[in-house]
Amino acid sequence: MDNLDYGIIGNCRSAALISKTGAMDWCCLPEFDSSSVFAKLLDDKKGGSFEVLVDDSYTIKQRYKKHTAILITHFSDGENAFEIRDFMPRYRKEGGGYNSPPEVVRYFKYIAGKPKFKILYNPKLEYAASKTETYVKKNFVVSLTHGDKFDTCFLYTSFNKNAVVEGREIELDNDGYFLLGYNEKIFKPTVRKIYTELERTKVYWLNWSSKTPNYNKYNNQISRSAITLKLLSYDKTGAVLAAATTSLPETIGEVRNWDYRFCWIRDASMAIKVIGELGHRNVAKRYLQFIVDLIPDKDEKLQIMYGINKEKKLTEQTLGHLKGYKGSSPVRIGNAAYKQKQNDIYGILMDVICEQLTHYSNDIENGEELWGITKGIVWIVAKHWKEADKGIWEFRSEDRHFTFSKVLCWVAIDRAIKVARILHKTRKLEKWTQLEQEIKNDIHENAWNPKVNAFTQSYSSPHLDASVLLMESYGFIHAKDPKFVSTVKAIEKELSNDGLLYRYKNEDDFGLPSSSFTICTFWFINALFKIGEEEKATKQFDRLLSYSNHLGLFSEDIDFKTKRLLGNFPQAYSHLALIECAINFSRKETEEKVLESMR
């Protein structure tokens, strides 16, 4: 498989990836950041998988059930046919709250003829670090490992358990199921019970998706991206993950392989702002509570990222026994970037707080805590905005005065002023307004490079950077300001490669970047649209959408030449930016129709 041709299923507790031929090649239980049960994605020999094997006469097609996270893989040879409906159960409990057990269900739906298949069931617990043994018991199949850690998982099925484990041929003449669970079940599942779980999960997702508004254009893409962002949210604490995987490389054979199963304040806040705009308020409320819980002390500086259960220490380790995706080692778990200083996170977080208070000022449960956080953020920004940092791209070398970080320091103060007005707290306004103006003047003076006629990556630098395109989105500069227009043009000239964008082209800690960072192309398209090049922007947007995988999903990066997806998958960043672009295009069309009808 040359591309990341996978679908994601999940239940806001964990997730699994299913290939377009129905193989489960990645699954962690009981939670997103737990060790893997299947990791063929990271080592096709050792990693382990759960595959459905049919002969070459079968055609295999895959799609999502519309407006849900239920993945349907259809097998047919013209005469014999069946479908697998893969999902992780999630639905409302009678007493309130949600049922989201650490389980994956594979429901086999009989369609026609006498379809035959074999199962390759090969769990490799704890990242396949030690031997996993599998035993057939009376009611289930159990797999366990006694390596450095003891771990188990349980497989329940309506099919012959010995035939499953031995990989013998199975003929389907009725619906059947597999349930892979982290825990042993109290009550034995049945086909009927599993079908009920499927229907309840379907209703949950249809209800959730019904809150997403209808737009004039790109409805399917907006809906699929919104569901993907929801699948990357962790219900228990409100955290939002950057992606569901670890160590998928930004470029095949290179070492830019990181664990993304954590909550970056920046990525999560951007995602939450978009999900909130789509009307999914509960996700935003839970995330704000996550932030409130993280900052118990008034002078505690925010880390750039946390574990999904609010862990503050994310020690990075290398799994040397796994060869990596397409041989791209090392495989890493944990992420040392948690120690970095990045001054932009305060502005991004303040933007979300301001957004929520603007829309729901009469219905914010933790308003007093949010005001406390607002004052704390202003205090930290006032004290540190003149300092250099690692920037949005997490350079591991020396600190610099990154333009994006400075702009977001300005955003932090700008939004704090707005929050103060919403909450009628005007005592500090004069002081804050002076600070806001000081930061703004500093950026105009030091980030603008007249030689390249653009705002550059960092102060006194000649290098361009796609992140400065967000100056306009955050309200720092008007879209039609000549300085912004010429920045967009300069970035197009310098960073665009066959319609895809580099983040930057100057060397970083690992040499020159050699793939396109997906979100940057969305940012660029959005900027083009804002400066008035709407036709060109729409054309480039449609082209970029065509680079998604067969299910409309995007990873972190795209290869410039082959257009294959690279990097961790699916990526929250990419999908939130897709939604922003699509909504802007759709809104513009709506406004034009309204104006037309008024003429």
TrEMBL record:
<dbReference type="InterPro" id="IPR045582">
    <property type="entry name" value="Trehalase-like_N"/>
</dbReference>
<feature type="domain" description="Trehalase-like N-terminal">
    <location>
        <begin position="8"/>
        <end position="137"/>
    </location>
</feature>
<dbReference type="Pfam" id="PF00723">
    <property type="entry name" value="Glyco_hydro_15"/>
</dbReference>
<dbReference type="Pfam" id="PF19291">
    <property type="entry name" value="TREH_N"/>
</dbReference>
<dbReference type="GO" id="GO:0004553">
    <property type="term" value="F:hydrolase activity, hydrolyzing O-glycosyl compounds"/>
</dbReference>
<feature type="domain" description="GH15-like">
    <location>
        <begin position="217"/>
        <end position="582"/>
    </location>
</feature>
<dbReference type="InterPro" id="IPR011613">
    <property type="entry name" value="GH15-like"/>
</dbReference>
<dbReference type="GO" id="GO:0005975">
    <property type="term" value="P:carbohydrate metabolic process"/>
</dbReference>
<dbReference type="InterPro" id="IPR008928">
    <property type="entry name" value="6-hairpin_glycosidase_sf"/>
</dbReference>
<keyword id="KW-0378">Hydrolase</keyword>
<protein>
    <submittedName>
        <fullName>Glycoside hydrolase family 15 protein</fullName>
    </submittedName>
</protein>
<dbReference type="InterPro" id="IPR012341">
    <property type="entry name" value="6hp_glycosidase-like_sf"/>
</dbReference>
